[in-house]
Amino acid sequence: MTATAGCSGPGSLDELSLIAGELSMDSIQGLQQYEYYRENPLKFPATTRVDFTEDTKAQYVTELFETGSVTVQQWPLVHRSQWGTTTVPRPTFLERDGTYYQVSIADEQQLERGRWHFAVERVEETPPDDATVVETPVNASSQDKRIIEAAMSAVYAGADDFLGEPEFEDLQTVQYHQGLDAEASELIPSPPFDYIKHQYSEEYYRPITEQRVVSVPVWTYTINGVGSTQAELIDHAKSEIVTHDLTDDLTGGAQNVVEDAISEENPRRYGESAPPSDPLEEVLTRLEIAADLQPIEAYSERIDFKDVVATYDGSGYSFGLIVSP
User: Please, are residues 90 and 81 in contact by the beta-carbon 8 Å criterion?
Assistant: First the structure.
């Protein structure tokens, strides 16, 4: 098979789509734009519905810089990119007291933990007269308010808050992580009310609590100094981020694939049906995606291979492959 430039148009149902965007990494702002440089790591959320407090994150960061390492649960200080059905860490840089550092993952594991969960589900019926009903905002402790608000927002995640229909059929729970004290919560093991009434929508929600065994990601981060000037940071960052070169030795068909992917013309991608043609396979091999790409029938939903940075014709591009079964 051969690749043909412009072979797919807008709205086509290609199973394999190679996309690319040009990167500008000649300034610290460019590194920050693409989330390689994290000027304020405290603003990056934990992988929980109720985020850690900034004080908690600040303690982690202080320990990291003072001791050279820190172990945390559920806080992805190192940015991760989607890679098929999993994720992979990206080069991540921080600054402290005039010195720039690269932060890396020294160890990662999954721990099984039993944790309380709180959730709400919308009910169609009006609560009985003898039910205890509270209205938002619920009068509760600061912690419990955050949990209730997160649980109610979770029901409509992806919708326009309380203006749309619930987005999920399954129960969307809020987990009591290590930053939330279940023993101090009036919601656990059961809340002191039977229903929550939303003050604007006037809809009713029933609270649910349960204990679950969950898999908790744990990361150990370490740091390595890379320089005291922005120029030193940028030089080092480029060496870590730009990991591939597509400039030389591509066949004509593979060059057409890359040209389509980086093109400013609509549809700004190269697409074809699975399995990949020889030219596309050549490019995916050079980008080290091919080895992890499974046959299309192995996927039940869209998956992405993201953020492979390569040079081509003197410029840097971030390539990604979208697989749409």
Answer: yes
